[in-house]
Amino acid sequence: MTIEFDAAVLRAPGEPLTVERVSLPSTPPPGEVLVRLGASGLCHSDLHALVGEWEVPSPMILGHEGAGTVERVGEGVTTLKEGDHVVLSWTPSCRRCRHCVGGRPVLCDMVSRHSANHLSFDGRSRVTSADGGDVYSFAGLGTFGQYALVPESAAIAVRRDAPFPQAALVGCAVTTGVGAAVNTAKVRPSDTVLVLGCGGVGLNAIQGARLVGARRIIAADVSDDKLEQARHFGATHVINNRGEDLAERISQLTDGRGVEVAIEAIGLPRTIEAAYAVLARGGTAVVAGQVADGVQISIDPFVMSDQELSLIGSNYGSSTPDSDFPLLIDHYLDGRIDLDSLVTRVIDLKDINEGFDQLKAGIGIRSVITY
Ligand SMILES: NC(=O)c1ccc[n+]([C@@H]2O[C@H](COP(=O)([O-])OP(=O)(O)OC[C@H]3O[C@@H](n4cnc5c(N)ncnc54)[C@H](O)[C@@H]3O)[C@@H](O)[C@H]2O)c1
Ligand SMILES: [Zn+2]
Ligand SMILES: [Zn+2]
């Protein structure tokens, strides 16, 4: 028995997604669950794949920021049952490898072996196109379709009173941004934090820094609209780095010291270098933005040793999805972080290409598909 549904499929990079009929088995294999999606956000990482900045296999259902309901569970599944509300994780973990056991499940061996190749844990795809061919699912999820078959550890149960559009964003932008500040940078109340890029990820880095009580939060972007949003999410100072000199403004704002933490949430070499260049002695630059394939950066290693600077990467906000997803939903429902204002547009699957046009043009924060 199979389930048929519409999904937005990447047929060729650089071309619009095609909404087409696809199918998957209605009975989950052992260790997997069938999820009926309630909502999916449009993230810039999907856009990297869509425009060909990342080389990905095709045909592929894009989308990796989703929430929904468990429809059926496969043999051996113990942590989920039918009817559970779940947020999907694009780093399903084996819970056994040295990274999982060591508390860094986003680095799980299974992720690099399978999810990163857009396949299930057994190295195969689950979805079939109308012509009978295999269809990849982005990060092993493929949330731009109403159904997904995912490993048990890719579906994290959360409380039922969070609306799906907001919960979906916990599946990428919120966890990535808040986590970059809280988990990766470990922002302290004495820190001045710069967040470079105020889109879905950057605004969450701002509210992550606010959550842990950072002394000052400086937001930089090239769009005044985004900077207005940044103030709403907790920025104490804003810089439009198209018109203003970033390094000079940071120097003014910090009496020449620089910032203790700089989080890059764009994915461009010059802004990663700029984040590193404005660090105070002993400071940390976090690379949360993801660059196009093949991009390199240049830094001065003498300054790095002399001033004990750190440049560190942040994958999925260095999170532990099992505990961080429910925690972030609690923070939201108790009013400590704002997820409502992130959802600037709710759209139908058929309007997905228009949603990506808006993301490209920097209009709004997140467009979210509801099913
Ligand atoms: N590390 C991770 O685990 C992870 C997870 C999700 C997304 N990402 C990456 O994070 C990046 C941001 O994703 P998003 O969904 O927030 O994107 P977005 O398009 O919503 O936001 C990008 C922001 O950067 C701003 N910007 C663009 N060029 C700029 C410049 N030169 N100077 C200052 N600001 C500039 C834009 O105006 C926009 O506000 C992407 O590269 C995405 O792939 C990383
Ligand atoms: Zn994402
Ligand atoms: Zn593992």
From TrEMBL:
- Any one Gene Ontology biological process term? formaldehyde catabolic process
Give any Gene Ontology cellular component: cytosol
The record's section on SMART domains has: PKS_ER (SM00829)
The molecular function terms of the Gene Ontology recorded here are: S-(hydroxymethyl)glutathione dehydrogenase [NAD(P)+] activity; zinc ion binding
Q: Which InterPro entries match?
A: ADH-like_C (IPR013149), ADH-like_N (IPR013154), ADH_Zn_CS (IPR002328), ER (IPR020843), GroES-like_sf (IPR011032), NAD(P)-bd_dom_sf (IPR036291)
- Limits of the Enoyl reductase (ER) domain: 14-369
PROSITE patterns in the record: ADH_ZINC
Names of the cofactor(s): Zn(2+)
Q: What UniProt keywords are attached to this protein's entry?
A: Metal-binding, NAD, Oxidoreductase, Zinc
Name the family: Belongs to the zinc-containing alcohol dehydrogenase family.
What's the name of the protein?
S-(Hydroxymethyl)glutathione dehydrogenase/alcohol dehydrogenase
Question: From what organism does this protein derive?
Answer: Kitasatospora cineracea
Q: What is the lineage of its organism?
A: Bacteria, Bacillati, Actinomycetota, Actinomycetes, Kitasatosporales
